[in-house]
Amino acid sequence: MPVRVDDVMRLCCDLSLHQQMKAAVKHSGRGAFVAGATAFMGGLVGGPPGIAVGGAVGGLLGCWMTSGQFRPLPQIILEMPPQQQQQLYDSIMTIIGRLDWTDAAQLTALVMGNAVLQQKVAAALVTYITQELRAEVQYGD
Predict the structure, then answer these.
(1) Which residue in 63, 103, 123, 134 is a FRET match for 10, CA 20 to 30 A apart?
(2) With contact defined as beta carbons under 8 Å apart, do 35 and 64 qualify?
(3) Cα separation of 129 and 36, whole Å?
(4) How far apart are alpha carbons 33 and 111 in whole angstroms?
């Protein structure tokens, strides 16, 4: 991955860590699969009443599985595939594109030293996470 993309990902990680951001990515597809699979298994075991019981149990299990499991945002950023990291990079570069830096540490210092720039980068990061990853962002512990 190009150095500049890595620098911006490091900036996003440092900024989100500084602001104690966490995100929960919703897995509705996984929950729906569990609900359907348990309804099917209930139907095989108990016939029509088993479908109802399996569907109810599967629905509750699916709901529990998809409830927000918050993870630190830096972890989510580093686990994103290169295509998503590139999209985030493009979004952040619209804000910091005129800055001149040599490494991630210098970029982070430039952004963290400017409250307005820090706020704009944080807002772009939250927008990307909520719209593209369809995750819920939470601040603090």
Answers:
(1) 134
(2) no
(3) 29
(4) 43
First to last CA, the chain: 32
For the beta carbon of residue 116, count every other beta carbon within 10 angstroms: 7
Q: List the 21-25 sheet strands across, edge first.
A: 71-72, 21-25, 135-139
Phi and psi at residue 30, to the nearest 5°: -65, -40
- Please report where in the chains the tokens 């479908």 appear, as a residue: 51
Q: Does an H or E element contain 124, and which?
A: helix 115-131
Q: Are 25 and 76 in contact (CB under 8 A)?
A: yes
pLDDT in tens, 80-131: 999 999 999 999 999 999 999 999 999 999 999 999 999 999 999 999 998 9
What is the b/e burial string over 71-105, where b = at least 16 CB atoms within 10 angstroms of the residue's CB?
eebbebbeebeeeebbebbebbeebbeeeebeebe
CA 136 – CA 85 distance, rounded (Å): 18
